[in-house]
Amino acid sequence: MCWLAGPDGTESAYPQDKLTGSFTTSTTSLYIPLSNFDDVFPFILSNLIGDELDALIHPLFGCNFADHEKWSLHLGDKYVPNNMYGISSSGDYPYSTPSSLDPLGNGTGYPNLDPSYWEDVNSASNYAVFILFNEESEASTQAWNTFKDEFDAEFENIGYYVTFEGDYLNSYKTNSNCPFLAALSWYQVDSWSFSHTVMSWIMTGGPSYNFEGEIDMEDGISVVVAPFFSNQGYMSWHNSVYYQSMFFGYKQWPFNMYPLYEATSSVTTKTSTVTSVETAVEGINTEPLFDMKKLTKKMDGEKVVDASKVDSSRTSDYYITLFSAPNNQWQQDALEDIVSSFSREFRTMRGKCEGVEMDDLPSFSNNKICMGNESSKPYYDSNEVYTTSYASIYVPNDSITTVLPFIMSQTSPYGTFGYEVDVEITPLPSSSTETASTNTFKKGIVWRKNLDAIDS
Asked: What residue ranges define each of the domains in the chain, with the CATH number in brackets?
């Protein structure tokens, strides 16, 4: 058993600077022979891993990509991603574009949708709001009931475009096309209502229960939001849920991967039309769980939001942060492309709000979209809250309806730039402490923050 080190006998303080490195954050590595594993593994579990440290344990079969990505064990409070670019390079992958094994790229083996689905990325027709909970936990079930009661009371009678679509308490057990592996309820909300009020109500304490209370992960609820567009079909909806959805709350529930492979309708891909084969599983319903075309049509022209009845205390401005691993060249390129595209699409100059405090953003920007701080290596600065590459954008409430679908679709591997970028959306006014709290919508990897910078 021995510590691993670089050529000079020590490990780099910033291994995430190296494009061909395996890791995206600071690391200390240890080689453990099989003869020592039974002693070392329990020690790591009981003494090292917790709120402050994470671990990745992987075998040495000879393929660096598979060892790190496919056969590894992640331990700790946060999932720390591998450097997909680095482990591909060190695994002798010879091409300049991501492989089909890269879960962040658009060649993941799922149907590669026709680009016309994203032609109008600034006009999501509606949003699906899923409330996920653990029905075997009394506390989680109570949190679910509380959320539903208060959500219904808040939005049912003031002209919002909100419809309750049903409770699906056992569908993840009985329907193979349920995209989630949890009990759930869901609502359909029009784009204006969701982005202007519903999203901020969820994040800023609309529910009476406290997401930061003393509740275990499995005893809370999660809110998952996915956009859909009027030209999307059944199969593209499942891709939308998987690749574009944001989550809020305690647990980032795993998805059911089956609907991404199998469906009951044909799917137009970039290269061909593929008709999926229905798989008969005894006792399992394979009918579509959500008929999105029918639901979209049902909401058309039903009613118009009465803006005069909107509670202004339920509206927020937003601080959007886009993240990339510092040494994943594919993700770095996607982040740069998205930020540049955003600047052109919304006619705003990059860096205009750089260095401006969150509370000062509305007045500084004259309540206009304003692009703020960007950093490729924030971990060099002990005062930086973020620990990985990022770019930030201030979005006033009046602009969030068009900005949100752009962010959700273009940070997807099925967006224009072909690689996933991580997202965090924080309601304003806020503080640096709240920025690090659970009161944010997230998409993709949840990166650790520099708690010392937050507390100082």
From this structure: 2-90 (no CATH), 125-308 (3.30.70.1240), 316-455 (3.30.70.1240)
